[in-house]
Amino acid sequence: MFFHIEMERELLLYPRHFGPNINELLTQKLIQKVEGSCSGRYGFVICVTQVTSIGDGRIREGAGVVTFQLKFTAIVFRPFKGEVLDAVVTTVNKMGFFAEVGPLQVFVSKHQTPTDMVFDAQSNPVSYVQHNIDEQPVRVTKDSEVRLRVIGTHFDASEIRAIGTIKENYLGLIM
């Protein structure tokens, strides 16, 4: 799920960068450092929307740098247990498959696929196949789009991992 939240970050700046454009430089440095990063507390930072305040610089003794406290708002992505997401399959193996939802990687175990879906190592590329009586078989391969439900998440300091399922109604391959 996406949230628009207020965050803080401390940035270091060397005196050679001081000048009339210091605010633009700090904003640019903040965007480079924060966008695309992940924090266990907030989730994946997608985009900085606004810098609300730039604090006064504090000189670090002995280091020759100045620290600035920046407050800003950002759009973040944080997955929750039970959330339904559309993902793109990146890897398929006999244990299950990995899918990506933007920056989040989700693992779907073979035990979390429908009971009539089996791993087919002979196909090229390898896939999970579900044979239907009336229609063509459904194949989950690399680059397939699937709808999945997040059944578990794990938050570290710098990454988020998730486990998903396609075993329920209305989940699985998106055609």
TrEMBL record:
The name this protein goes by in its record: DNA-directed RNA polymerase II subunit RPB7
UniProt keyword Calcium, yes or no: no
Stretches assigned to coiled coil: none
Location in the cell: Nucleus
BP GO annotations: positive regulation of nuclear-transcribed mRNA poly(A) tail shortening; positive regulation of translational initiation; transcription initiation at RNA polymerase II promoter
Domain of life (superkingdom): Eukaryota
Keyword Transcription: yes
Signal peptide: none
One cellular-component annotation, GO: P-body
Domain RNA polymerase Rpb7-like N-terminal: 12-63
Transmembrane segments: none
GO molecular function: single-stranded DNA binding; single-stranded RNA binding; translation initiation factor binding
Species of origin: Chrysotila carterae
Family stated for the protein in its record: Belongs to the eukaryotic RPB7/RPC8 RNA polymerase subunit family.
